[in-house]
């Protein structure tokens, strides 16, 4: 089908913003503008990596193949993001419920029981929880305000280049999470760079775009330093080998691809390898985290139960 017919079909079957975008693209293409230029004229709608791939495909006459590759690349990226999010939901829910129950008992239930114990020495767990509840009543509002201020400040700092780099560098040093973040960024670089090279994008431009696609400024800086070395005539594999943040496996696969002239195929394999590695870790995390959370929640529940029932048992014994 002609490109204009494809866009008209998308415009007819889509609703809302996607239909409006298809209408704008069709109008621009009918006016003689290339598809990549029309997409680039809609800031915030299309990724610059996608625009660069389509621009190269228009020059080489491989637009349909490139579109399929873009769709596969986006599907793999979405699957990876969903896996990371789903692995973090369960721990956050359990911790939130445990904290909410503890606060409710400390603030509302135990003070009522304490009223029946005037003149008696409360057990140690009860005294600790009562002090915690008193502290929450006195300072809880200020703690909440301080927490909100910290979140706002962290968000504002994270929007700056240096702040984002600091936070992303910190994430890389966190056990387990750092490995996931690093492998995710490397998988994105491998898939995007391989796709750009196959689409016919020049190497230096492909490195610029794939560095932006990593989502981590530390790894992005390492790739851009390697880009400068490539611009001076050095092989990309040799330049990447000097960067400690880049895995040796990727460097060796890149070197093999350069020797065989199939860099795109080797990087596709590297992307699949790292994506499967991340997926395996994410599938294993719930099995590792669940026992730890059960023990943690059990300790909290036991402590709260002792703080509630010990005074009751003491009162029953005195009767």
Query: Per CATH, which architecture of the largest domain?
Result: Up-down Bundle
Using the coordinates shown, work out and report the CATH topology of the largest domain: Receptor-associated Protein
Average pLDDT score: 81
Q: How many distinct beta strands?
A: 0
Quaternary state of this entry equals single chain
Structural class: mainly alpha
Supply the CATH class of the largest domain.
Answer: Mainly Alpha
How much helix is in the residues? over 70%
The termini sit apart by 89 Å
- List the total number of helices: 13
Query: Over the alpha carbons, how many angstroms does the gyration radius reach?
Result: 28 Å
State the order of secondary-structure elements, H for helix, E for strand.
HHHHHHHHHHHHH
Number of domains: 2
Quick synopsis:
By secondary structure, this protein is an all-alpha fold.
Polypeptide structure, described:
- This protein has 319 residues and is mostly helical.
- The protein is 84% helix and 0% strand.
- The protein has helices at 3-13, 16-30, 35-40, 48-60, 63-115, 124-158, 161-172, 177-199, 203-213, 217-231, 236-241, 248-260, 263-318.
- Helix 5 runs antiparallel to helix 8 (177-199), helix 8 runs antiparallel to helix 9 (203-213) and helix 9 packs antiparallel against helix 10.
- It is elongated, with a radius of gyration of 28 Å.
- The N and C termini lie far apart (89 Å).
């Amino acid at each position: 089908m002609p490109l204009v017919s494809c866009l008209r079909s998308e415009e007819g079957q889509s609703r809302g913003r996607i239909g409006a975008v298809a209408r704008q693209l069709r109008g621009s293409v009918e006016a003689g503008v290339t598809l990549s230029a029309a997409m680039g004229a809609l800031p915030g709608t299309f990724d610059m990596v996608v625009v660069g791939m389509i621009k190269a495909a228009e020059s080489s006459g491989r637009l349909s193949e490139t579109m399929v590759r873009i769709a596969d690349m986006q599907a793999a990226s979405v699957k990876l993001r969903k896996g990371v999010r789903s692995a973090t939901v369960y721990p956050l829910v359990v911790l939130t419920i445990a904290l909410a129950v503890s606060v409710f008992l400390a603030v509302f239930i135990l003070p009522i029981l304490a009223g029946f114990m005037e003149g008696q020495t409360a057990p140690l767990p009860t005294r600790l929880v009562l002090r915690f509840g008193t502290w929450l009543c006195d300072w809880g509002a200020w703690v909440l305000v301080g927490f909100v201020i910290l979140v706002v400040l962290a968000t504002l700092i994270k929007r700056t280049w240096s702040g984002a780099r600091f936070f992303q560098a910190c994430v890389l040093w966190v056990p387990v999470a750092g490995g996931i973040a690093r492998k995710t960024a490397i998988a994105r670089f491998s898939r995007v760079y391989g796709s750009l090279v196959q689409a016919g994008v020049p190497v230096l431009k492909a490195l610029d775009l794939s560095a932006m696609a990593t989502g981590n400024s530390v790894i992005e800086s390492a790739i851009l330093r390697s880009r400068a070395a490539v611009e001076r005539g050095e092989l990309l594999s040799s330049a990447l080998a000097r960067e400690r943040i880049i895995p040796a496996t990727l460097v060796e696969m890149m070197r093999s691809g350069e020797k065989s002239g199939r860099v795109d195929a080797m990087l596709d394999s590297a992307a699949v390898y790292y994506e499967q590695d991340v997926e395996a870790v994410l599938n294993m995390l719930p099995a590792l985290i669940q026992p730890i959370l059960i023990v943690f929640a059990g300790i909290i529940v036991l402590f709260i139960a002792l703080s509630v029932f010990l005074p009751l048992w003491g009162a029953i014994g005195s009767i």
